[in-house]
């Protein structure tokens, strides 16, 4: 700034001039810093590889879920209901005496049966049902099915096989370990083929997996009581259940 012009200003104008010059210098400094901050440092940017692995463990099924019940047909609703109640009570008492798990009633119904004559609908009887479900050790289920039929059950709606909760939990841990190993091996193979080296794991994600589905078998055909009394013991053989997990790794190289 010209010293002559500055000295000729009065004190008030000198102060204003100094403030204006200071503001201009501050603005110029801030712009320089902002420009430097927006310039990316590509050399320091982290290079990462994301890879997912899966792990599968097969475990034996040791428990059987059974759905069975009583179905009765008769002329009157009252008679049908009484017979269903009587037989169902005998079946439930048997199941309780065998200490089955998760015993519960899954359905009760009483419906009329119709016939059609000359275009007219008439009730010619009723059908009543009472069904229950329960869980038992697979090695005991065949004998219990035969006993339930002899006690009054007239239908077996189906069976499904599952592993115990403890076995499933252990298998999930093993599957997670296998999935992590699988992801790491994939990352090693990819980086090695590109002549790169793995440095560290930046992130780990255990992907949620659905619980293993039970092995379901179709319903067993209903059999008259007299026929089941003469039949051989019902064989029930479980299978294997698949437990699967996946793990995603983010690896810096």
From TrEMBL:
UniProt keyword Signal present: yes
Keywords associated with the record: Signal
Keyword Signal applies: yes
Superkingdom of the organism of origin: Bacteria
Pfam families on file: SIMPL
GO terms under biological process: DNA damage response
Signal peptide: 1-32
InterPro entries, per database record: 26kDa_periplasmic_antigen (IPR052022), SIMPL/DUF541 (IPR007497)
PANTHER family the UniProt entry points to: PERIPLASMIC IMMUNOGENIC PROTEIN, SLR1258 PROTEIN
This protein's name: Periplasmic immunogenic protein
Protein source organism: Allocoleopsis franciscana PCC 7113
């Amino acid at each position: 700034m010209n010293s002559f012009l500055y000295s000729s200003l009065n004190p008030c104008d000198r102060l204003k001039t100094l403030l204006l010059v200071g503001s201009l210098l501050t603005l110029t400094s801030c712009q320089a810093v902002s420009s430097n901050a927006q310039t990316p440092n590509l050399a320091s940017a982290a290079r990462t590889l994301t890879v997912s692995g899966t792990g599968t463990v097969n475990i034996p099924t040791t428990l059987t879920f059974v759905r069975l019940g009583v179905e009765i047909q008769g002329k009157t609703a009252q008679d049908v209901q009484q017979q269903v109640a009587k037989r169902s009570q005998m079946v439930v008492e048997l199941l309780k005496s065998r200490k089955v798990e998760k015993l519960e009633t899954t359905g009760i119904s009483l419906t009329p049966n119709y016939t059609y004559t000359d275009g007219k609908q008439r009730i010619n009887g009723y059908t009543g049902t009472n069904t229950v479900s329960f869980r038992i050790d697979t090695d005991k289920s065949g004998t219990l099915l035969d006993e339930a039929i002899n006690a009054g059950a007239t239908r077996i709606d189906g069976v499904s096989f599952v592993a115990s909760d403890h076995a499933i939990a252990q298998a999930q841990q093993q599957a997670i370990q296998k999935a992590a190993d699988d992801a790491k091996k994939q990352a090693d193979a990819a980086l090695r083929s590109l002549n790169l080296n793995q440095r560290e794991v930046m992130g780990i994600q255990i992907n949620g997996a659905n619980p293993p589905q039970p092995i379901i078998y179709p319903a067993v055909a209903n059999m008259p009581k007299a026929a089941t009394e003469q039949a051989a013991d019902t064989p029930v053989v479980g299978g294997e259940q698949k437990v699967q997990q996946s793990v995603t790794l983010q690896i810096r190289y």
